[in-house]
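Letters spell out the chain; backbone shape is given numerically. Take this protein:
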Amino acid sequence: EEPPPYAIFILATTEKHKIIPTILSRCQIFDFNRIKVEDMAQHLAAIAQKEGIAFEPEGLHIIAQKADGGLRDALSMFDQLASFSNRNISYKAVIENLNILDYDYYFQLTEALLAQQAAKSLLIFDEILNKGFDGNHFIIGLASHFRNLLVAQDPSTTQLLEVSESIRTKYLAQTQQTTASFLVSALSIANQCDLNYRSSKNQRSQVELALIKLAHLPSVLNLSSLPETEEVKKKRVEPAPVTESPVSIPEKQEIVVEATPIDQGLAITVVANDSTGLLGIIAGVLSLQRLLVRS
């Protein structure tokens, strides 16, 4: 039976690739993407202006981030906060009601880590735990903070910061105090702590150990960047090379004895190519001469 002409069938799916081509060819396809944080915050601001609700842009950005791309969830939180805060949606009211850790904690903690103040970083973490926040939630937020600082270092990637304008200014100011090598290493340490957090039996010490590593990270990076000429070099005592004195092998001595007859006897001529043992040779020749005279 043919449907009436005013009927419209809507097929919603997240797995379009599984639909057979014969059905896709008869459909008008509309791809829906996740709503950006900035667009959602602007939509909430327009609603607040129409309803006469006072608001702070930072608070609306927090609501948009908490909604995670869902506009319906953002509107629900917006209505609740408008009721709880007496139609004044401020940044402080939003983080208190939604149980969100303030950005300032991460900025203060990063300053302590850059100053290599491990004790101060541990005290900040203790204050966060006393406010009822979970350690895993804290370390995830710290990793996101390092990521935002890394993104803010390049002007072409600042658009990837899904924060309000005032928070963006803070990121741009703090990223000038850091280096890319520090941020990449810090992000790696924070992610490793996040992976080990759930399997750890002492979860608090797991986070504290990561903070101590981060506090000593600047000195490690400075030491590795020192030029080779400034490093302390130990004097090495090198043993003197052992040289073997060549053994002089005397050449083979060649002695030629020639006897020439003369009036009163023989004239003996000795030719030798080496003077070694010359006295012995002369003594032998004299003995030979006496033998010849006797004969």
